[in-house]
Amino acid sequence: MKIRKLNVGEEIKREAAIIYMDGITNTQNIQENILAPLLKMTRMESIESVIKNHLSIIDANVESSIDEFVNGLTKGKCFVLIDGYNQGILADVANWQTRSVSEPDTQRTIKGSMVGFNEQLKVNLNLLQNIIQTQNLKIESYQIGIESKTDVALMFIDGYVDEKVLKEVKKKIKEIDVTYLLEARVIEDALEEKKTLFPLVFTSERPDVTVSALYEGRVVIIVNGLPFVLIVPCLFIHYFQQPDEYNSKAGRFGIRIFRLFSWVLALLLPAIYIAITRFHTSWFPSPFDKKLFSNSDTMLPFVWEVMFILFIFQSLLEATLRIPKNTTLLVTLIGTITIGETAVFAKVIHPLTMIVVGVNFLTSMHIASGGLWGALNLLRLVFVLIGNFLGVTGILIGFLLLILYMASLKSIGVPYLAPFIPFSLREMKDVIFRGDLKGLINSKHTYPHKENNDK
Q1: Domain span at residue 83?
Q2: Could you give the number of structural domains in the chain?
Q3: Alpha-carbon distance 14 to 11, whole Å?
Q4: Residue 428, SS3?
Q5: Do 309 and 339 meet the contact criterion of CB atoms below 8 Å apart?
Q6: If you placed Cys at 154, which of 140, 275, 343, 354 could pair as Cys (CB 3.0 to 4.6 Å)?
Q7: Where would you find the membrane-spanning parts of this chain (predicted)?
Q8: pTM reported for the whole predicted model
Q9: Residue 229, phi then psi, degrees to nearest 5
């Protein structure tokens, strides 16, 4: 903390001081727009007159609270004290170092916007306001944290937003009581009604996806310091909608069905493979049964082969995310040689197991950009164990129970599987396939709530 002492006024000399935090303030701005005008000041009637007649800075106001003074300093503001007054001037001279706007790492698109959010709240608000130029866009500011107050912005479009969702989100945000806020997971936990495997809050790094969500009647939460936003309500089908579908003609009818089928394969393919090797080899002709299953000369049982390869693939994924980028290729080659050649050649792993798990891993990548990845990894292992002990019948029963469990989930009071459960024909225009863009733009979305379902 720096204190610059000076004398102001010519008729009556008064001692004054400018207090600021070095490193997060623009000292040139302080010198030109605050210090220089104060030194040239000849007279003053009040603190308000100093701001009105002398200071050439936009954001300046009178403060008398010590708490506001301390909070202002930590946010890059400077405080001007003048002897004889029990108030001071708090002026915004922050100079935060920011990362330039760049392409988002997730939800990438071949055709469309290449701009992604960064860690600064003001920059993210600027990106969204640049796209949504309407007076109906509302932004409400909150500060979360007792020791360190983090700025949080709540955004919605008046006339489009679901009022029940908005009311519930405001209530839950105001109830957050933490010492500090560094991760959005704190807000996600507050917004989720109960602990569950599936994400009930959608995250996005793309301004265009966020704008579409706002016009769909959803609420957006932006946290200072995080390069993504939170969107509620979150429905299961949202994870299968990608920006490419709205920027190009291709994939309008079949791409979402393909992604849903890929999710089912990523969830059940290893389990079905294990169930067949254990209980249902008779489904195949005798030559195939003997070559692929009965006469297998690999060292491990099929279930352990699948578990081993899944473990290796997950290790490779973790390694490529954590290590320096220039060593990613080396790690990938080592993993390919170890698994693809050595393990099969040494008869540790059956070649068909490699194919099945490889296809399974590729299909899981189709939804890796969303929040379903963590739930998929755990559920895949659960279904592998079910297939090993209960066969295909157990897998089908387990999948039905999973659907019933998902149907019981709600995101801010909205059923997670809507508009499938409860079924709404009106809302199916942008679910299985992408409807006509003009029709989608000109129609409002509606969301079912618990009150409607209980009646």
Answers
A1: 2-92
A2: 3
A3: 9
A4: helix
A5: yes
A6: 140
A7: 219-240, 260-279, 299-317, 329-349, 355-376, 383-407
A8: 0.82
A9: -120, 160
